[in-house]
Amino acid sequence: MTKKSSNTVWHNATVTRNDRERLHRHKSVILWFTGLSGSGKSTLAHAVEDYLHRSECSTFVLDGDNVRHGLCSDLGFNDEDRIENIRRIGELAKLMVEAGVITLTAFISPFRSDRSAARKLVPHGDFIEIYCQCPLQTCEERDVKGLYKKAREGKIPFFTGIGSPYEEPDRPELIVNTHQQSLDECVQSVINLLLSRGLISQNLLAK
Q: How far is CA 42 from each of CA 24, 106, 193, 207, rounded to the nearest angstrom?
């Protein structure tokens, strides 16, 4: 990593986060979906975004694969690069929260310390960890992208769950059992959590 410059000064915006949230008519927050490959993170994140978008909420999904096509295209999948990948995502998500956007991130983010570091970037309550719980066997059976097969054949080193560990969250704000619950049920669980925390209001929601 490049050493941080000592000649930069933080510039306070004239338009504040509160101003943007009032414009959007909802609070901004990071919804951090974590889980094994094939656990349904991206599917759920996009389904939640679709629901919120139809409710006229300001949203954006940061998807693991998409981000690695641009912002993190220079990173590999060893532990050091995975840590840097999540650091960058955490910083980007922090900026999007300041923009008043409900930011949904769908990343394996296998290490607790990295998820904790991302949480610490924002004020208390701005980071909601959602664990997409799904057994490794089920994820392998789905093998949506054919990655588990390649990992078992030794073609993908450091693949989470096979050649690299996944550390389950200790105290996530929400656990969704994506192997037992339907997609609609998982979406509703997320929406209910947002409602219970006052991040969105019932009168906003799509009918």
A: 24, 5, 18, 24
Q: Which of 109, 113, 182, 201 is catalytic?
A: 109
Q: Is 45 left (phi over 0), alpha (psi -120 to 50) or beta?
A: alpha
**78-117 residue pLDDT tens:** 878 888 888 999 999 999 999 999 999 999 999 999 999 9
Strand 29-34 and strand 102-106: the pairing is parallel
pTM: 0.90
Match 């999007």 to its residue by tokens. Answer: 96
6 among known catalytic residues: no
Dihedral, CA atoms, 106, 107, 108, 111, nearest 10 degrees? -130
